[in-house]
Write a structure and sequence with these properties.
By secondary structure, the chain is α/β, with parallel strands linked by helices. The chain folds into two domains: 28-139 and 295-376, FAD/NAD(P)-binding domain, CATH 3.50.50; 141-293, 3-Layer(bba) Sandwich (FAD/NAD(P)-binding domain). Helices cover 26% and strands 22% of the residues. The protein has helices spanning 7-12, 43-55, 76-80, 167-183, 201-216, 237-250, 297-300, 347-365, 414-432; strands at residues 30-31, 35-39, 56-57, 60-64, 69-71, 90-92, 102-104, 108-112, 117-120, 125-127, 130-133, 138-139, 160-161, 186-191, 223-228, 252-255, 259-264, 269-273, 279-283, 286-288, 293-294, 332-334, 378-385, 388-394. The chain has a five-stranded parallel sheet with strand order 7-4-2-11-22, with helices on one face. Strands 13-20-14-15-16 form a five-stranded parallel sheet. Strands 8-9-10 form a three-stranded antiparallel sheet. The longest helix has 19 residues, at 347-365. The radius of gyration is 22 Å and the shape is globular. It starts with 6 loop residues before the first helix and ends with a helix. The model is unreliable at 1-22 (pLDDT under 50). The structure holds flavin-adenine dinucleotide. Flavin-adenine dinucleotide binds at residues 39-45, 64-65, 67, 73-74, 76-77, 107-108, 134-136, 163-164, 197-198, 201, 296, 298, 336-338, 345-348, 350, 379-381.
């Protein structure tokens, strides 16, 4: 019988602490007239805005982001595999921004940190005393010749799927998965070589596709090929080895160092490039495309990006990995996926780091040192089939950091599934509201 934890065990456990509704202990707000700009109103931007609104008295906080819909992105894999309806991942940003904050519905086109100014797409210059960069990742589908995100789910691109871009794409992915599993055939799953938000999502999609084929009775007529551009399928070795062992048993084939270079969405043919530069063509009935990811142009093309080292090619934000303060502009902080840090592009990362960023920024406003350190906490409930998942948690060093004593990270369990399916969304909402 699956383990059924008690409510006390749940609320006492670190990873689920967000479910406890009590607000953090009240602390006297710092009086300041500082102008703070927050670029990006996704999870990280709004979480920090809500915290700053409580920690500061008199600050002028401005959020810049054109996006009005708030999407619960961790739910996309559930929508794309038929577990959730699409409405569960749609919300309104306006409902979560703190009172008194100015919302500029525009995109940041550039940062001029020497002049402490943000420049928007419509040409407005917004000066700041302090800046929080929270603009997430750019999904770089353009690197794949022939790829057309808008065609996902359309008749001109049968079998073309991708869970990443939007709720609509996730929904269309589920429709294509249903059509495919009804007949079976040849499935190709891709993985690029860049840092990814939720690096577990491509693996979840593969596990769930196999589960759906099994349930549809077409598994014996089908083959799943996982094509990784890397030498692994997951950056934490024990997790990588565990997944590969499972896939061997489940009959999911893996090839390494295969980069998706082009796709003919009409002819259903994908072209991969080997390290030697050879082309490998693969016909498919179903393909799941994971795009290369990089920093959005506004950061990549600015002085705020790393200029050398492992994060320079992607143009990621140059922050100190412990304090999340910019290494050259101390009045700038980064939160969430935009940060050029090892690992850490998950909502769980924001949960652990938003309080640290807010605290460190308040310290700097008060003329003190940023003194709280983030350990790189990253977490990913890795679905292995409907009703089972592994709860993987790790730090910058790739060490497993399980926060629930009754969960063995490398074993899949019904409880870890339940977390993904039922408990993580309320936890995410609590992070968004700056409550935990
Ligand atoms: C398919 C999928 C599955 C996932 N599964 C999980 C999971 O199981 N567990 C987990 O913890 N995490 C998961 N995540 C990751 C999680 O959703 C992200 O890590 C989290 O949303 C990061 O928050 P963020 O604020 O950095 O970025 P986002 O929430 O993406 O927000 C970025 C914001 O920046 C805005 N923006 C972009 N460019 C500009 C600009 N130039 N100017 C102004 N605004 C701009 C965007 O409009 C957006 O509102 C998943 C993500 C995906 C896509």
């Amino acid at each position: 019988m699956p383990y059924q934890p008690t409510r006390r065990a749940l609320l006492g456990a670190g990873a689920l602490a967000p479910l406890a509704t009590a607000a953090p202990p009240a602390q006297a707000a710092l009086k300041t007239s500082a102008r703070i700009v927050i670029a990006g109103s996704g999870l990280g931007g709004i979480a920090v805005a809500n915290r700053l609104a409580r920690l500061l008295d008199g600050a002028k906080i401005t959020i810049v982001d054109r996006k009005e819909e708030h999407n619960y992105q961790p739910g996309y894999t559930l929508v794309a595999t038929g577990v959730w309806p699409v409405d569960k991942v749609r919300d309104r940003n306006a409902d979560y921004q703190p009172a008194g904050v100015e919302w500029v519905k525009d995109m940041v086109a550039g940062f001029d940190p020497a002049a402490n100014t943000v420049i928007t797409a419509s040409g407005t210059r917004i000066p700041y005393d302090f800046l929080v960069v929270a603009i997430g990742v750019q999904l770089d589908y353009a690197q794949i010749e022939g790829m057309d995100v808008d065609a996902i789910g359309s008749d001109k691109a049968p079998g073309l799927t991708s869970v990443y871009p939007s709720p609509q794409a996730a929904q269309a992915t589920w429709a294509a998965m249903q059509a495919f599993t009804a007949k079976g055939g040849n499935a190709v799953m891709t993985l690029p070589a860049t840092p990814l938000k939720c690096a577990g999502a491509p693996l979840k999609m593969s596990f769930m596709l196999r589960d759906r084929l099994l349930k549809a009775g077409t598994l014996d007529r089908s083959k799943i090929h996982f094509q990784s551009a890397l030498g692994n399928v997951f950056g934490v070795k024990v997790v990588n080895d565990n997944v590969l062992e499972r896939w061997k048993t489940l009959g999911i084939d893996v090839e390494f160092s295969r980069k998706l270079a082009a796709i003919d969405i009409g002819a259903r043919r994908a072209t991969f490039i080997t390290p030697e530069g050879d082309k490998q063509e693969m016909p498919y009935d179903f393909i799941h495309v994971v795009p290369p990811m990089r920093a959005p142009d506004a950061v990549k093309g600015s002085e705020l990006a790393w200029k050398d080292g492992p994060f320079a090619a992607g143009g990621w934000l140059e922050v100190d990995k412990s304090t999340l303060q910019h290494r050259r502009y101390p009045n700038v902080f980064g939160i969430g996926d935009i940060n050029g840090t090892p690992r850490g592009k998950t909502a769980a990362t924001v949960k652990k780091s938003a309080p640290i960023v807010a605290h460190n920024l308040v310290q700097v406003i008060a003329g003190r040192q940023a003194d709280e350190a983030f350990d790189g906490y990253t977490s990913c409930p890795l679905i292995t089939r409907e009703g089972s998942a592994m709860l993987i948690e790790f730090d910058y060093e790739g060490r497993l950091t399980p926060s629930l004593p009754f969960i063995e990270p490398l074993n899949d369990s019904f409880f870890a599934w339940l977390m993904k399916y039922r408990m993580l969304k309320p936890a995410y909402m609590a992070v968004l509201k700056g409550r935990v």
